[in-house]
């Protein structure tokens, strides 16, 4: 047997063992979470394992006398538990972790595994400005990632491990669009989530789609031996094309990187969200598909938002652009617009100003809503409001030798701590829900919640939960009919719903 064949078999066996070990570890991670264990050991005797309390005045589920924000909970744990029967001596990180655990339980944020359910509300949903119904549009065949409503009322749909299809007016899903970028089956499915290399990601219409028919797709392009790798590797790539008689045609590559930048890091952190501004530039998010020190190396694509023209040309006014002769052949610095992002899972342009906004997942805490600025440093992994999953501070940035002041970073416009796992969002526009104006409608994965956020003069002045316990929200988009469409994933399938004014 040739040496390379033996090597491949050995790698396959090793990969299987690693995958099974990871599955075993992650399946019990929620039960072993340090702040949960500390609460059970140190707090449950008084407050109850379900936080309901042994006495009425010890319940943590009722309105709290001293406030229920993370900072208020930290203050209460630190300063009001000083009686001799409290034996725990808590570190500062564990105090914050306990506050996060209590807040997560109060908000009924499920575990990651527990979030893969769907519950459609029956009847009228009442909110601050509008009442609405939730209507099921379509049941989907696999885990979705993105939708793009079409002017004729149909809806383009991307599914991570299937590809591109169309949902018609009756909610029926078409056959896959032939000729679209290739996708690959998942390497492993873990607690309802796909772990793989080579997935379909975002789908977005050109601002003048009705005139030119251009459709933009991001996907994680996969290669192996032709990349000089014995194991599959992938990286975000953006293409555009048209659909004619069920086929993907006229494909052009809009943004890609040198194959030296392809990695084995799974596509769950690829991001690949797309948005156009009012000048016709397209913005592309790339998550941390590499080690975190590369998020601050301009020649690498990771942890950044990129900006190119609609035809793929790179504008010379990008903040880190250099002529070809002054950069390495593998460099992607010419398209970098902002950096220091962890995983920007949402991207959209304000309908009036055209400013680009993003939603970003933190670790345990520190999810963010950000306005994306030219050349902006968003701080990860040196600065975050979140904790590590082991209830310790995030020290990755210091360990990697990153050194820049907090004042050199762009602070979040809205911080979510605890973290609901923010996903994609849209700015509301249209006359079906007029009192929502240009508010952000933001989805979340773990929290299964649809948020409405009103931002005025750079600050959130309203934050409302429109829907809770709905399901893992992958995408939120405005239809040409003025209705709000919400894309859900649950277990290994998904569904599409819409909000109808009451």
Notes on the protein architecture:
The protein is α+β, with helices and mostly antiparallel strands and 502 residues long. The protein folds into 2 domains: 33-106, Orthogonal Bundle (Cytochrome Bc1 Complex, Chain D, domain 2); 115-501, TolB, C-terminal domain (Neuraminidase, 6 Propeller). It has 8 helices and 26 strands. The termini are far apart. Mean pLDDT is 91; it is low at 1-14 and 16-25.
State the CATH topology of the largest domain.
Answer: Neuraminidase
Please state the average pLDDT score.
91
Report the major sheet.
5 strands, antiparallel
CATH superfamily of the largest domain: TolB, C-terminal domain
Helical percentage = 10-25%
CATH architecture of the largest domain: 6 Propeller
- If helices are DSSP runs of H or I spanning 4 or more residues, what is the number of helices? 8
| Count of distinct strands | 26
What's the N-to-C terminus distance?
69 Å
Strands of the largest sheet, in order across it? 1-2-26-25-24
Class by SSE composition: alpha+beta
Describe the secondary structure blueprint for this structure.
Elements: H1 3-27, H2 29-32, H3 34-42, H4 44-47, H5 70-80, H6 92-106, E1 125-126, E2 131-140, E3 144-149, E4 155-159, E5 163-167, E6 188-190, E7 193-195, E8 200-205, H7 209-212, E9 215-223, E10 233-244, E11 247-255, E12 271-276, E13 282-286, E14 304-308, E15 336-339, E16 344-349, E17 356-360, E18 367-371, H8 396-399, E19 414-416, E20 422-427, E21 440-444, E22 450-456, E23 459-467, E24 472-478, E25 484-490, E26 493-501
Antiparallel strand pairs: 1-2, 2-26, 3-4, 4-5, 6-7, 8-9, 9-10, 10-11, 12-13, 13-14, 14-15, 16-17, 17-18, 18-19, 20-21, 21-22, 22-23, 24-25, 25-26
């Amino acid at each position: 047997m040739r040496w390379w064949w033996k090597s491949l078999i050995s790698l396959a066996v090793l990969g299987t063992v690693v995958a099974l070990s990871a599955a075993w570890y992650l399946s019990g991670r929620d039960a072993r979470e340090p702040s949960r264990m500390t609460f059970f050991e140190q707090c449950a005797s008084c407050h109850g394992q379900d936080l309901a309390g042994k006495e009425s005045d010890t319940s943590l589920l009722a309105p709290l006398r001293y406030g229920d924000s993370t900072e208020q909970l930290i203050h209460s744990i630190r300063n009001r538990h000083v009686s001799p029967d409290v034996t725990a001596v808590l570190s500062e990180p564990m105090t914050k972790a306990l506050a996060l655990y209590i807040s997560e339980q109060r908000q009924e944020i499920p575990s990651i595994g527990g979030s893969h359910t769907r519950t459609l509300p029956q009847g009228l949903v009442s909110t601050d400005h509008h009442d609405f119904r939730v209507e099921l549009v379509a049941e989907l065949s696999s885990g979705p990632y993105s939708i793009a409503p079409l002017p004729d009322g149909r809806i383009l749909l991307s599914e991570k491990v299937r590809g591109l299809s169309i949902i018609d007016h009756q909610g029926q899903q078409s056959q896959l669009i032939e000729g679209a970028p290739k996708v690959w089956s998942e390497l492993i499915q873990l607690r309802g989530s796909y772990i793989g290399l080579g997935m379909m990601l975002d789908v977005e219409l050109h601002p003048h789609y009705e005139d030119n028919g251009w459709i933009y797709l991001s996907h994680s392009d996969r290669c192996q031996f032709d990349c000089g790798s014995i194991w599959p590797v992938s990286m975000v790539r953006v293409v555009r094309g048209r659909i004619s008689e069920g086929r993907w045609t006229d494909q052009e590559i809009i943004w890609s990187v040198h194959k030296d930048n392809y990695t084995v890091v799974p596509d769950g952190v690829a991001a690949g969200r797309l948005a156009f501004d009012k000048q016709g530039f397209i913005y592309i998010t790339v998550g941390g598909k590499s080690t975190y020190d590369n998020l601050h190396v301009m020649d690498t694509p990771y942890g950044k938002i990129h900006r190119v023209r609609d035809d793929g040309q790179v504008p010379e006014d990008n903040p880190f652009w250099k002529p070809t002769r002054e950069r390495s052949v593998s460099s992607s610095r010419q398209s970098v617009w902002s950096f220091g992002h962890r995983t920007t899972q949402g991207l959209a342009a304000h309908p009036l100003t055209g400013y680009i906004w993003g939603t970003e997942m933190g670790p345990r805490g520190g999810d963010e809503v950000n306005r994306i600025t030219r050349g902006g440093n968003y701080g990860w992994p040196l600065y975050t409001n979140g904790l590590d999953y082991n209830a310790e501070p995030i020290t990755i940035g210091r360990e990697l030798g990153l050194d820049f002041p907090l004042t050199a970073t762009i602070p979040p416009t809205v911080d979510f701590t605890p973290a609901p796992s923010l996903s994609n969002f849209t700015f509301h526009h249209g006359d079906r829900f007029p009192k929502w104006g240009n508010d952000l409608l933001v989805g979340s994965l773990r929290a299964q919640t649809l948020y409405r956020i009103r931002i005025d003069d750079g600050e959130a002045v309203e934050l409302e939960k429109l829907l809770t316990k709905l399901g893992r929200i992958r995408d939120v988009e405005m239809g040409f009919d003025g209705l709000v469409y919400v894309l859900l994933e649950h277990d290994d399938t998904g569904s599409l719903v819409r909000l109808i004014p009451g």
